[in-house]
Amino acid sequence: MATIASKYDAPSKVPVGVDPNRASIARVYDAFLGGKDNYAIDREVYHRVREVAPEAQDLAWSNRNFLIRAVRFLVDQGGIRQFLDCGSGLPTAENTHQIAQRIAPEARVVYVDNDPVVIAHGNALLDENDYTHFVAADIFQPQDVLQNPQVRGYLDFREPIALLQVGTLHHYTADNGGELMQEYVDALAPGSFVAISHFLNPGTAEHQALAERMENVFIHSPMGSGRFRSKAEIMKFIPGLEIIPPGPGMAPDIVMSDMWWPDGPRLRPLSQVEECSAAVVARKPPS
Ligand code: SAM
Questions:
Q1: How many domains does the chain have?
Q2: Phi, psi values for residue 212, rounded to 5°
Q3: What sections of the chain are H helices per DSSP?
Q4: Residue 89 and which of 24, 43, 112, 183 are 20 to 30 A apart at CA?
C-alpha cells in the first residue's frame, strides 16, 4: 500500500490532532454550521471567509442539505442499503445513518474520517447500532479504505454501495483526483452510486471572482485547503458513471447543490455563495 499512498497527497493526510492552535477541517465545518465543537482558530477561518463572502455559512449548509436529500434518494429510490461515507465530519443533527435507517432500518453505514476529534465523537455517537460503524483512515488513500478489514467486514462489495464524498474532495488539492476516484469506482459493484458535493468555481463573470476570493482565503488560512473547481474538473471525479438527472425535466448534469432535487419550490434566488457549491449523484451502470 505504500506505493499507492505516495501517489495521492492531500494537506489533510496528517490530521491536525487536538492542537487548539491549528484549524481542523471538521471543526471549521462545524463552525460554519454554527456548532459548538470548534476552537477560536477554527472560527478564525470562518470569520476570514466571511470577510470576503458575507454568506459564508451557506457553503456548509448547501453541502449538508444536499447530503440529507441525496441519502434519502439513494435509499428510497436507489434501493441502496450500504453506505461508505468518506469524511463523515462531526456528528450533527441529521447523520447519514439516521437518514438512511429511518427509511430502511437495516441500511448499513460505514463512516470514515481521520480527524481525532471526529474519531472520538464518531466512536461514541455514530457507532450507535449494529449497522453503523466508524473507521479511522485517510479517505484520499483509496486502497487503505477499500482494503480496510473493518470496511470489508461491514460492507458487501458484491452488492451496490453508495459512496459519499460530500464536502471532501475540495480538500484534495492535487490534480489527479480523477484517478483517486477511479480506484473507488472500480471497487464498486454495478448499480452502485457516487454522491459528491464540491466547492464550485462557476466561471461566470458574476461569481468567478467570489469563488477565487474564497479559495484564496481557505488555502492561506490555518486550515490550508479548499479548491473551487469548475464543473469540468468535478466531472473527472465520476469517471464512467451515469449522472442522475438533478431535477424534474433536467438533463443529467452537475448543478448547484441547492438545485439538486430541492425539497420544494424555490421562492428566493440563490445567494452568491450558494452559486459556488456544486453537487452530483451518479451511478455505475448496472451490468
Ligand atoms: N461529509 C460531511 C458533510 O458533508 O456534512 C462532512 C464534510 S467536512 C467539510 C469534511 C470531512 O472530511 C472532515 O470531517 C474531515 O476531517 C474529513 N477529511 C478531510 N481530509 C480527510 C482525509 N484525508 N482522510 C479522512 N477524512 C478527511
A1: 1
A2: -65, -35
A3: 2-7, 25-32, 40-52, 57-76, 96-103, 116-121, 142-146, 149-154, 177-187, 208-219, 231-235
A4: 183
What domain range is 164 assigned to?
Answer: 2-283
Residue among 9, 12, 92 to mutate when testing ligand 1 (max atoms within 8 A of CB): 12
Pocket test for ligand 1, best of 90, 98, 115, 172 (most atoms within 8 A of CB): 115
C-alpha cell at 87: 469524511
pLDDT tens digits for range 40-96: 999 999 999 999 999 999 999 999 999 999 999 999 999 999 999 999 999 888 999
193-199/108-113 β-pairing: unpaired
Q: Is 10 in the pocket of ligand 1 (CB under 6 A)?
A: yes
pTM over 0.90: yes
- Cβ proximity of 161 and 83 under 8 Å: yes
Encode pLDDT of 114-132 as tens digits: 999 899 888 877 666 889 9
